[in-house]
Amino acid sequence: MTETSHYLCIGCPLGCRLEVETEGDEIIEVRGQSCKRGDTFARQEHVDPRRFVTTTVAIEGAPWPRLPVATAEAIPKHLMREVCATLHTLRLEAPVELGDVVLRDAHGTGVDVVATRSLGRR
Ligand code: SF4
Questions:
Q1: Contacts of 26 by beta carbon, 8 Å cutoff, 6+ apart
Q2: Which of 11, 27, 29, 119 is spaced 20 to 30 Å from 102 by Cα?
Q3: Protein residue with its CA nearest to atom 1 in ligand 1
Q4: What value does the mean pLDDT take over residues 8-16?
Q5: How far is the CA of 44 from the centre of ligand 1 (A)?
Q6: Does residue 68 have a cis bond before it (omega within 30 degrees)?
Q7: Contact 51, 43 (CB under 8 A)
Q8: Ligand 1, atom 3: nearest CA belongs to which residue?
Q9: What is the helix (H) or strand (E) element at residue 19, kind and residue range?
């Protein structure tokens, strides 16, 4: 017996509505995608949904009070809240360079959180 799961592709602003048809653990077909990225996204989303985290972290001694950061790769979606909570507790000190690691191996994902811009001292 087959089952159909529904997802919204976030690969581009078109937002294709995707259907993944499965039989047991096996994916039989992906429908609704307008390009190959949608197929890849649907298969990943069905078995292991992942997202990039982009946010800001408090920083002392810089011209602005918050430093923009992001995960270097997408992390499991169910860990996003915990990673954001940890980032919320961080207090960095300027200067920070673009690409500096601000949180290593975020929650055991093997993915670092890095600065997405440089901030010097004020
Ligand atoms: S399937 Fe392709 S065209 Fe459709 S939303 Fe995803 S990336 Fe965009």
A1: none
A2: 11
A3: 38
A4: 97
A5: 14
A6: no
A7: no
A8: 34
A9: strand 17-23
What pLDDT, on a 0 to 100 scale, did the predictor assign at position 57? 98
Element (DSSP H or E) covering residue 39: helix 36-47
- pLDDT tens for residues 39-98? 999 999 999 999 999 999 999 999 999 999 999 999 999 999 999 999 999 999 999 999
CA angle 76, 109, 84 (to 5 degrees): 70
Helix (H, G, I), strand (E, B) or coil at 117: coil
Residue 92: per-residue pLDDT:
98
For 71-98, the three-class secondary structure string (H helix, E strand, C coil) is: ECCCEEHHHHHHHHHHHHHCEEECCECC
For ligand 1, the distance from its centroid to the CA atom of residue 20, given in whole angstroms, is 15
Per-residue pLDDT band for 116 (boundaries 50, 70, 90) equals very high
- 55: which residues sit within 8 A by CB, 6+ positions away? 68, 69, 70, 84, 87
